[in-house]
Amino acid sequence: MMEVRRIVSNTGLLIPLEKLRQGNAEKNWSKHHVSRGETEQVFFNRPLVVVAGEQHAESTPRYYALGHTDAQRLLFIVCTIREDLIRVISACPMSRRERRVYEHAKEEATETDPEV
After folding, report:
1. Mean pLDDT, residues 35-61 taken together
2. Chain segment 50-96, per-residue pLDDT in tens
3. CA 116 – CA 109 distance, rounded (Å)
4. Bridge-partner residues for 76, per DSSP?
5. pTM for this predicted structure
6. How far apart are CA 11 and CA 112, in angstroms?
7. Percentages (nearest 5) of helix, strand, coil residues in the chain
8. The sheet that has 74-82: what strands, in order across it?
9. 81 DSSP β-pair partners
10. DSSP state string for 17-59
11. What gap in Å lies between CA 51 and CA 56, rounded to an integer?
């Protein structure tokens, strides 16, 4: 049986990853050549850096995620959480700055868990 990992929002809400919903898969492919499968892989690979985004009035909170695919492609993902679904709004390759943040998180994770 496959272990289903969860992400934890800054509110402590646990979201089962089998509930991942791809909202803009076609746009992500045409603009950034990021497939739906790649965005899903990011949520299953470690380390995964997730932070809360800016809150806009009357909108669903957004989260920013930095992670990598099974092929080690580094991606930046913007998503929302609606009820028990993760909805990907945008996915693109990480910028230089995002890569630095991710590499730092990876170093920290390796210090605490060598399997990362």
Report:
1. 86
2. 999 877 767 788 999 999 999 999 999 999 887 778 888 889 999 99
3. 6
4. 66, 92
5. 0.74
6. 23
7. 30, 35, 35
8. 20-22, 85-93, 74-82, 62-68, 49-52
9. 86
10. GGGEEESSHHHHHHHH---HHHHHHHHHSS--EEEE-PPPTTS
11. 15
